[in-house]
Amino acid sequence: MYKINTADNRLSRLEVKSFSSLGFTERHHLQEWLANEPDALGEELLIIQKEFDGFDDTRERLDLLALDKDGMLVIIENKLDDTGRDVVWQALKYASYCSNLSKPQLISIYQQYLDKYCGGGNAKELICDFLNSPDIDEVVLNSGHQQRLMFVAANFRKEVTNTALWLLSNGIQLQCFKVTPFAMGESLFLNVDQIIPTPEVKELMIGITAKEADEKNTKTELKNRHTVRLAFWEQALEAIRTSDCDLFKNVNRSKDHWLSAGSGVSSCPFSLIFGVKEARVELNISRSVTAENKFIFDALLEKKQSIESAFGDELEWLRLDAKKSSRIQFSKAFDGYNQDNWGDIIEWMVEYMLRLEKALKAPLAEVNQRLRQMHSE
Q: What is the pTM of this model?
């Protein structure tokens, strides 16, 4: 690996190091790096426990336990300068132990992690947020026997890579990541390189897996919910098109729990939310640049009093500092899947979306103009 020196148009070689020579340990360094930056493994992962030892009749413990964006368990095993011979067998044992973990158990495991390492938090809400699900009842965790394995080490022995390739060819989902520390002066760098499967093979396998999963269909509960949502949005859109609310008149029904329409500001749509337990109207500030989202939110928050006065009620102002997006919303509890309530829900949505659009229209236009001026300077 080289550093580019733009001043003299030259390359400077970085010095390859070993973890042991730098005094790094598996538990206190590599494990902590990945626990706090799991995206280094090439995808969004939610770490739900570390040093997990919740196995009956055994003292064994796995390094990191995570969820992927499909709600599948990921067992992450870290080794420093060498994998050793037994890492695959060790991880397979852990996967078999974890295969029986239920959704309530996983929520409890994650809650313990949050309380011990993160200063608290609501495990159910964070899992729903990570999986982009409106309600924990819709979440499917650790389905079947599709647990995934990730091996992380500086060097992989041939017996490990051969076994990994054989398991991969037989349907076991696993990845091997080679991690290499580099130094230049006092600065240290870490390169994370997926060596099994190669990125090209991984993309092919993901495509095949997605196709097979689609052919097997989703869970019956989810299919039912999609049917309910389609029916609700069809009824809602019919009512909206005869109302004074013009935002959603060119929007089609959806199986999702939300419908969005443009606000006049790029990537800041107004949204209607239809949930199991509540309905919601909101402005979703979700541009690609985090700083712009926070700028828009803060500029609107400065006008909180006048906006809420125009809206006629207090709004929920969610800056969401740990996330890219921000949100301004208003909600009401409903039994959403009781069809007898749909008329009341739709009437409520129309009234409060009209209020929200009216209250935010002028402030949004002003903020948008300020953004344009900033970009032109």
A: 0.58
